[in-house]
Amino acid sequence: MIRSVLDTLRLIRAAAILARHDALVPAEFDEMVPPGVRLFGRISRIGAKDRHLRPGQRLARALAGQGPAYIKFGQLLATRPDIIGFEMAEDLGELQDRLPPFPTDVAREEVERSLRRPVDELFTSFSDPVAAASIAQVHKAVLPTGEAVAVKVLRPGIEQKARREFRVFRLGAKLVERFVPASRRMRPVAFIDTIAQSAEVELDLRIEAGSASELADNLKDTPKIRVPEIFWHQSSRRVLTTEWIDGTPVWQTAVLDRQGVDRTALAVLTMRSFLTQALEHGFFHADMHQGNLFVDAEGRLVLLDFGIMGRLDEEARRVFAEIIYGFIRRDYLAASRAHFDAGYVPAHHSVEAFATALRSVGEPIFGRSADAMDMSKVLQQLFDVTEVFEMRLRTELILLQRTMVVVEGVARVLDPQIDLWGTAEPVVRSYVTRRVGPRAFLKAAGVNARAARELFEAFPEFALAAERAAEQLANGGLKLSDDTVDRLADALRGRKRKRKETPPETHP
Q1: Is 126 a residue whose pLDDT tops 50?
Q2: What are the DSSP calls for 428-440, one per residue?
Q3: Are 209 and 230 in contact (CB under 8 A)?
Q4: pLDDT for the residue 49
Q5: Mean pLDDT throughout 481-506?
Q6: Model pTM greater than 0.85?
Q7: Taking Cα atoms as reference points, which of 414, 210, 156 lies closest to residue 294?
Q8: Residues ≥6 apart with Cβ < 8 Å to 275
């Protein structure tokens, strides 16, 4: 009872902060809500600030002022443009995940408690925080063996605080579902539950270590990509120790130019490395924004922060590849069939009509350089089209598409003239040729094998019918009755009808 009251008070406080930034019921959404909610929104906006900003920018400012769990909520919300739209997703993607650091002494205590050894035994040096975010901060340290490492330490009590705040989010989602019927299609409560589960995973640094290790194994044959090494014996649920890598952030393009880095090649590498992760391995870094990408002294692309990862099964990878390859080749009918074959679009719709809708998305951007198009708007239009055709979107594909937009943004910064389709084509074509082609061949072979088996099983009945026909010919000819014709056809089709057999008509 007390917890429910406290959660309600926390929800009221959060709503007041959102209202102060016109992010509770934004004016732009007035026509999408019932009259009662619209009136409440207008009252809540009295005295609101930041009215000149876009709704997503206002929401980002409001969330940034409420603590770690709210920042993480905004970042995870940015991965669902199918629900909030790409413009708002982009604005929330800019949400700054920076908070004041907690004291180094507290961090040392956390490390000692988690690893059960004194910090001075674990490291020969342990710096003050070099970076501080919503759920953790990073210290530079040196192992007794001499390796420089990055030590990531969770904020004290962050797990309990996050669970408490997500209870508040869930309470708010239940109220939205109750009073805004149009929101029920998006299932706000289920969405909050999904985000809460994602946050639980991110709060266990052992899982992040496992993700980094798996990604490193998958990319070990790509020498231009570097994933920091994990130091398992100095890591735990609340502490993650990785290789320290000095490098230049990809957004510092002037510095990269002074270092002689080929930014065009780096942009291509960024795009293709993401597609390789998604298609070849079905496991991809889902937070490849500029702050998580560096270039080391040898010109290698360094990936950091493995808290948000995406995974695709073989079927999802095949469908994704066929759809993208259809767009690349401007074969919209093939892309449409891929949607229908996967069951994404209900069968009562027309494949050809959906292909025409996809053409309206693809043709305006074909052959254009990155600086001449906005992939977020393209994917927003794609979502609009799929809504008309009642397309069912899988969560992992939404995360994939959102990551594509982020990676496209990085590539655009590095090389504004990059040809996104041309860059993607070799990776997608290779996957389609090796995986989709053989799969289609095996599928056809399976159909042929089933047909041969059915014919083999039906052969005795077919032989009996032929034998009777031969006997009739020897006795002076025959007339094929309807029953005889049907039985011969059934035998050839491999179907055994359960009906009483009648003798064929014969005529002397």
Answers
A1: yes
A2: HHHHIIIIIHHHH
A3: yes
A4: 82
A5: 50
A6: no
A7: 414
A8: 424, 427, 428
